[in-house]
Amino acid sequence: MISAYPGAAVRAAEKPLLDAGLGPALMQRAAYGLYAACAREVLARRGSLYGAHVTVLAGSGNNGGDALYAGARLAGRGAGITAVLTSEAPHPEALAAFRSRGGRTIQLSRAVAECARLCAESDLVIDGILGTGGKGGLRGPAAELARAFTGRISGRTSGIDRRPLVIACDLPSGVDADTGQADGEHFTADLTVTFGAVKTGLMAGPGAVAAGRIECIDIGLGSLPGPALYRLESADLAQLLPVPRKTDQKYSRGVLGIAAGSATYPGAAVLATGAALATGVGMVRYLGPESVCRLINASHPEAVCATGTVSLVHVQAWLAGPGAGADEDQRRRALEAMASGLPAVIDADAISHVEPGLGPQVILTPHAGELTALLGRLGETATREQIEADPLRYARRAAELTGATVLLKGWATITAAPTGETYSQAEATPWLAAAGSGDTLSGILGSLLATDRSNRDTASPAPGHYAELAAAATSIHGRAGTLTAQSGPVEPSMLPAAIRTVIGELKKGVVIDSV
Ligand SMILES: NC(=O)C1=CN([C@@H]2O[C@H](COP(=O)(O)OP(=O)(O)OC[C@H]3O[C@@H](n4cnc5c(N)ncnc54)[C@H](OP(=O)(O)O)[C@@H]3O)[C@@H](O)[C@H]2O)[C@@H](O)CC1
Ligand SMILES: Nc1ncnc2c1ncn2[C@@H]1O[C@H](COP(=O)(O)OP(=O)(O)O)[C@@H](O)[C@H]1O
Ligand SMILES: [K+]
Hints:
Layout: E1 2-5, H1 7-19, H2 23-46, E2 53-58, H3 62-76, E3 80-85, H4 92-100, E4 104-107, H5 112-120, E5 124-128, H6 140-153, E6 165-169, E7 191-195, E8 198-199, H7 205-211, E9 213-217, E10 229-231, H8 234-240, H9 250-253, E11 255-259, H10 267-279, E12 283-287, H11 290-299, E13 304-306, E14 317-320, H12 328-339, E15 344-346, E16 362-364, H13 368-377, H14 384-389, H15 391-402, E17 405-408, E18 413-416, E19 422-425, H16 437-450, H17 454-457, H18 465-485, H19 495-508
The protein binds ligand NPW, adenosine-5'-diphosphate and potassium ion.
């Protein structure tokens, strides 16, 4: 499990070490970690460091110091290095070390276009303009450089036309370390090498997109108090996924009730059912119109379909909403599922029936547009753009207002418990942005809720338990999408096959964090 912390928590952990005079030592550890990651990435790409063109972007603070020291080490291995100084006052000792290894420097303010060209023609750009001391987006010539560089490389790929590798020092410059907001100009990295602890802004909103892969360098800060944001990894998922016991029968494994689909939108029910079955539920009991029952049974003969009410069937968890449209019976079933006290996924159209006073076992799964509407009904104004810019804040706020667990979809999907525990999963691929993809996510989550033993074996699961299960479902969905995308565009109806593969690999202990 990865734990991420706000910049202020990392700075507080550094403070006693800085007071003890260890600042220079911490910077050397950070710079060495950055150098090693840069060397590895350049070697993997072009086979040799010798003769590689590297540009270091160095700001006025310690972030620029880290980048200059890393650049000095790369120069020592034969790389040709230029530092673009974005301020008049770069870190003096780091600059001296850089120059003593033969690194040359250019003052950005006098040559923005030349610096943008230099970056675009480099093998590697190290972004050391701003770190945790940055406030707001980039300003002045640094902002112009980011704009010009992005313009020059847009359309290039990492293949034949050689887009330069961009490695961010601690965080991409212009990204807020705590929220991931990136309102102004900022850099976008292939890899972010972060120091001491992962910053929350690298795992949320635009910051998660700008960060690329994340690598954390231990600089000896020790443990930090109260993690703000978690990310599940393969080993965590393997532990969370239940395996049938020898004494199990279909009911003890878990039954999921699905109230999804309508005469207008029957396909959503088929997708959700398929995903739930592929995740390993004991039984699906489907409730909905007869026409949808027939369609589901045509592709999933194992689903038990009926047209009745929620109170008439015995299940361990509910899933309501996908494709429900304006169907009045499905609306009633969604309300009964929320009031049942059982774990329930409330997705799509059912989200518009949500009222405050729910419990954490109810998991709402909006995208940003659906969350705008929900918050509006609860008396809070937030546009879709505001939610996409700061998803941590709005997912937490929605959980607080409803009492439910909230899963806010996106490139990095945020899950927030009403008690404050928050997760971010980013294994997905943009190929998953397709109609019907969310229906499969709800099916995976419904299955995990129905087969969850802690719900039956303990009186009240730990705070954050449902947020953890929702994060696990997101991760399985993202991995299944990424696996499917390896052979072409993703059709959501292809996902169940990949879900089975992902779960099988996780259970075998195969590490597929970087599929
Ligand atoms: N502390 C430690 O132990 C260790 C720290 N480490 C490293 O230090 C980094 C934090 O260093 P830092 O505090 O010097 O901040 P950093 O972000 O480099 O620069 C701030 C400067 O930028 C300026 N500025 C601000 N916003 C701006 C904007 N939008 N556009 C333009 N300029 C802007 C601001 O000027 P101001 O606006 O305040 O006048 C100020 O001068 C951290 O991320 C990590 O890399 C590692 O070495 C490990 C040990
Ligand atoms: N750009 C993206 N990158 C990765 N995943 C995405 C992206 N856009 C959407 N997704 C994922 O695709 C799914 C889309 O869900 P949703 O919009 O509810 O679809 P639908 O309701 O049509 O089934 C969500 O799991 C979301 O996180
Ligand atoms: K940076």
